[in-house]
Amino acid sequence: QVQLLESGGGLVQAGGSLRLSCAASGRTFSSYAMGWFRQTPGKEREFVAANSRSGDNTYYANPVKGRFTISRDNTKNTVYLQMNSLKPEDTAVYYCAQSRWGTSTAINSMEYWGKGTLVTVSS
User: Are 101 and 32 in contact (CB under 8 A)?
Assistant: First the structure.
């Protein structure tokens, strides 16, 4: 049974930073691409960032390019999302997800999801 457990969310002022972590268990972590998504009330879940099995290839949504960095440590079965220069519009529940196939930005390509961690950015 695959489990994904996010941590690191919280309240931060605009311009601040947070690092989210997602610890995975249940199958060989290094065999699967990972992604981060976010959702605010009343809106659809949206893609934030993704990386390949090795972490060498990364992809970002336009609103977070240059501010967020996705990385992974396959020895620790963990994927990270470093978020800098945070804005109030980044406020959301952030979810990590494990891809069903290769690296993807599509929600329906994700096979497993964590329960999410709340990030609140105050102005």
Answer: no
Residue 44's contacts (CB-CB under 8 Å, 6 or more residues apart) are none
Per DSSP, what are the bridge partners of residue 51? 34, 58
Ordered DSSP codes for 46-74:
EEEEEE-SSS--EEE-GGGTTTEEEEEET
Question: How many whole angstroms separate alpha carbon 118 and alpha carbon 54?
Answer: 27
Beta-bridge partners for 95 = 37
CB 17 within 8 A of CB 82: yes
Nearest Cα to Cα of residue 100 among 50, 39, 45, 48: 50
pLDDT mean by block of 10 residues, the chain; 123 residues: 97 98 97 97 96 96 98 98 98 97 92 98 96
Nearest one of 100, 82, 89 to 123, comparing CA atoms:
89
Cα separation, 123 vs 112, in Å, equals: 33
